Amino acid sequence: MKTHRLRSVSISAAVCGLLLLSAGPLRADNLIVNPGFERGEGGSIEDWNANPRNWKSGAKASIDKAEHHSGDKSLLLEMPQPLKSGERGFVLVTQDVPVEAGKSYNLRYWYKAQGLVKEDRAHKERGYANLAVWIFWLDKDHKSVGSPPHSWMSNIQTDAKDWVKVENTRHAQPGDGTPFRAPEGAVMAQIKLQMAVTAPDAAPKVWLDDVEFEEVGK
Ligand SMILES: [Ca+2]
Fold first, then answer.
1. pLDDT in tens, 125-151
2. Which of 11, 67, 201, 206 is 20 to 30 Å from 57 at the Cα level?
């Protein structure tokens, strides 16, 4: 029987303590992961929450390889079939990003759109088809905080043949100013990209790319 005598080797435990110092601001860091929708295939959109159970009347979201602002892909929100009577189409894609209460953030994105329908208040029966972008502010228990607990950035109802940049806009809250300030108690911003359709004949397509959410001044 062989006995292997192992030489006693003094191994100094290498503790790789990474001291995270508060580095000075160099450039703005985009807090969105997979902002250009380059990672994902079909209905599998990495790092984003895209749950078909929340979608209605055939509206859907997917990674699109035909259109892109950056890279090779974009996010497509679409209503492939016109609605049946009384239906409402809806599709939602979200991402939660960490924020600090009291700090301000820029939100921008690029989009293209075809088939959107502008609401006509004199003819509400004609319905609408829009791209809406929201920020919902959430506390550590994932509950809404703030008054109001959200910022409605966009309510886009007109088409764009070419890529259009949207940055720090406000819809319906003109007094709020921009950029977007995280309210007291907020630890998370939920970025919501959604398309809603009530127009009976509409079959819109909206492409989104390069979603950027960054702390102001970083
Ligand atoms: Ca892209």
1. 899 999 999 999 999 999 999 988 999
2. 67
- CA atoms of 105 and 212, how far apart (whole Å): 10
Q: What is the DSSP string of 34-100?
A: STT--SEETTEETTSB--GGG-BTT-EEEEESS--SSTT-EEEEE--SPPPTT--EEEEEEEEEE--
Looking at every residue in the chain, the average pLDDT score rounds to: 88
Residue ranges near ligand 1 (ion) with Cβ within 5 Å: 36, 68, 70-71, 209
Asked if residue 16 has pLDDT above 90, the reply is no
* pLDDT one-digit tens code per residue, 80-97: 999 988 899 999 999 999
Tokens 């989009």 locate to 111
40-215: which CATH number, 3.40.50.2300, 2.60.120.260, 3.30.2350.10, 1.10.10.10?
2.60.120.260
Q: Tell me the whole-structure pTM to 2 decimals.
A: 0.85
**14 Cα: distance to centroid of ligand 1 (angstroms):** 40
